[in-house]
C-alpha cells in the first residue's frame, strides 16, 4: 500500500497548512571579514570552520566579575593578526564554562558568552568560546553552531562578503 502524495495545496491546508518553505542560505567563503557590533569591532578576519562545533575568539586578560547578581566575564580582544593594536575591553554574561577539545586533542576549559557577529551583511547571535588564539592563523573561528543560522560555506571561495578598505587590511599585516 502506498501513501497519498499531496499535489494540491488545498489538501495541505486540511493538515495544518502548507509545508514550510525551506530556509534560504547565505553562501560565505571559508574565510570572511566580520564585525562584532556589540564590541565596537568593525573588522576582524574569521575562519568559517565546519569541522568545529563552537565558535571561538582570541581573548586574554579574562576576569570573572559579577553584575546585577549574575556571572559575567571581562576580557580583551585584539582584532588584528600578529598585533596588539586597537585592543578592545569587552564584558559579557557567562552562559557556561565548557571543556573544549582542540583538533590536536588538548582539552581546555573555556568561558562561553553570547556575541553578535555580522557576517555577509546579517547579524546573528552565537555562543562564543574565549581562548588564546594568538598563535593561530585567525583571531576568530566561526563553527557549525554559528553557521547553522543560515550560512553555507563554499570552501573554494574567500571574502564573498567583501573586504575592508586597504588601510584596514594593512593593519592586519597582509594576512
TrEMBL record:
This is RimK/LysX family protein. Residues 1-24 are annotated as: Disordered. Residues 27-162 form the Retropepsin-like aspartic endopeptidase domain. Pfam families: Zn_protease (PF05618). InterPro entries: Asp_endopeptidase, Peptidase_aspartic_dom_sf.
Amino acid at each position: 500500500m502506498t501513501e497519498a502524495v499531496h499535489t494540491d495545496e488545498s489538501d495541505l491546508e486540511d493538515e495544518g497548512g502548507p509545508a514550510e518553505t525551506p530556509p534560504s542560505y547565505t553562501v560565505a567563503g571559508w574565510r570572511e571579514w566580520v564585525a562584532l557590533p556589540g564590541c565596537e569591532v568593525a573588522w576582524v578576519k574569521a575562519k568559517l570552520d565546519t569541522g568545529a562545533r563552537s565558535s571561538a575568539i582570541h581573548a586574554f586578560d579574562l576576569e570573572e566579575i559579577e553584575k546585577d547578581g549574575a556571572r559575567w566575564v571581562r576580557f580583551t580582544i585584539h582584532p588584528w593578526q600578529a598585533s596588539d593594536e586597537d585592543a578592545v575591553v569587552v564584558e559579557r554574561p557567562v552562559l557556561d564554562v565548557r571543556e573544549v577539545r582542540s583538533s590536536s586533542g588538548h582539552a581546555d576549559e573555556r568561558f562561553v558568552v553570547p556575541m553578535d557577529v555580522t557576517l555577509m551583511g546579517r547579524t546573528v547571535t552565537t555562543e562564543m568560546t574565549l581562548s588564546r588564539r594568538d598563535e593561530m592563523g585567525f583571531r576568530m573561528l566561526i563553527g557549525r553552531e554559528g553557521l547553522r543560522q543560515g550560512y553555507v560555506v563554499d570552501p573554494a571561495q574567500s571574502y564573498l562578503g567583501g573586504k575592508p578598505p586597504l588601510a584596514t587590511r594593512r593593519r592586519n599585516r597582509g594576512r
